[in-house]
Amino acid sequence: xxxxxxxxxxxxxxxxxxxxxxxxxxxxxxxxxxxxxxxxxxxxxxxxxxxxxxxxxxxxxxxxxxxxxxxxxxxxxxxxxxxxxxxxxxxxxxxxxx
Length: 98
What we know:
- It is a single chain.
- The protein is an alpha+beta fold.
- It folds into two domains: 2-57, no CATH class; 64-94, no CATH class.
- It is 49% helix and 14% strand.
- The chain contains three helices and three strands; from the N terminus they run E-E-E-H-H-H.
- The protein has a three-stranded antiparallel beta sheet with strand order 1-2-3, covered by helices on one side.
- A hairpin with a 4-residue loop joins strand 1 (2-6) and strand 2.
- GO terms for molecular function: GTPase activator activity.
- This is Ral GTPase-activating protein subunit beta.
């Protein structure tokens, strides 16, 4: 959770609450005083970093390349057809394209 309080007209102080210390993913940290001019961009970047870190810490998280690999293996198992080289070329060139 990210809260902010206006200190002066052009400065803001932040209160960042994380579920655990590992969720504190910058660029902002708790108690930091920053300009209102950069507040939006830094809050957005901090929120995105916290979400990404929380997702990566999940036990069930699989990166996209791993999910893609498993899906390809699943398709191969589902549609594989055992044949030798001559049967393959016969099937490839004799089957009409619909």
